[in-house]
């Protein structure tokens, strides 16, 4: 079993999905929720499952929360509980706090009270789905920063048989191909003279505007 230990607070849809994934990857995971039913639903998918109100500092101390490498606060709807939990975790000296935000304002407050990383699952999923809707060739889209993203784009018929050098995407669209996916194989050091094959997927990094132009025209 891997040595990294995670605590996930809030076993809603997001929290339980994070917890189950980490557990399946062989990490030690403690799932915490104030709702006993939620804990019972997830008991077989975590190493330990505990019923506790995490806005209560004493309860967090008793769980030894400081000893976890990462604590994920996945409380969504109850914004007050989410903020209070992050604040308390910070005060208790938790090394890394990742928190889920409902909206931008909530996210700003979470950073202010001590979150090391804030995630916006609904917003990010919305962006990914929207890019997929704009162009059926876009398989996935992940924002790296406000203006920069990575997109997985299916090659168009007119790219097939050409090399990256011939496609000249850097000059034409100001995007960079960081990998080429051919079936199950990932080529993360694409050669400028490798020929694009039918069904290949390009993993492209760039400014959002440039990526959009590339998605629409290429
Ligand atoms: P999602 O949208 O991911 O389903 P929810 O906000 O519905 O998120 O779920 C968050 C979970 O957090 C719920 O199961 C809720 O019981 C739990 N929760 C809310 N407040 C606290 C708290 N103070 N302590 C522990 N768990 C909490």
How would you characterize the overall build of this protein?
With 218 residues, the protein is an alpha/beta fold. The protein folds into 2 domains: 5-132, NAD(P)-binding Rossmann-like Domain (Rossmann fold, 3-Layer(aba) Sandwich), CATH 3.40.50.720; 135-217, Regulator of K+ conductance, C-terminal domain (Alpha-Beta Plaits). It has helices at residues 13-24, 36-42, 57-62, 79-91, 104-112, 121-134, 164-167, 169-173, 208-217; strands at 5-9, 28-33, 48-51, 70-73, 97-100, 117-119, 138-143, 148-154, 176-182, 185-187, 201-207. The strands form 2 sheets. Strands 3-2-1-4-5-6 form a 6-stranded parallel beta sheet, sandwiched between helices. The chain has a 5-stranded antiparallel beta sheet with strand order 7-8-11-9-10. The protein is elongated, with a radius of gyration of 21 Å. The model has no long low-confidence stretch (mean pLDDT 93). It binds adenosine-5'-diphosphate. Residues 3-119 form the RCK N-terminal domain.
- List cofactors, ions and other ligands: adenosine-5'-diphosphate
Q: Class by helix and strand content?
A: alpha/beta
Number of domains: 2
Strand content: 25-35%
**What share of the residues lie within helices?**
25-40%
Number of helices: 9
Q: Quick one: CATH superfamily of the largest domain?
A: NAD(P)-binding Rossmann-like Domain
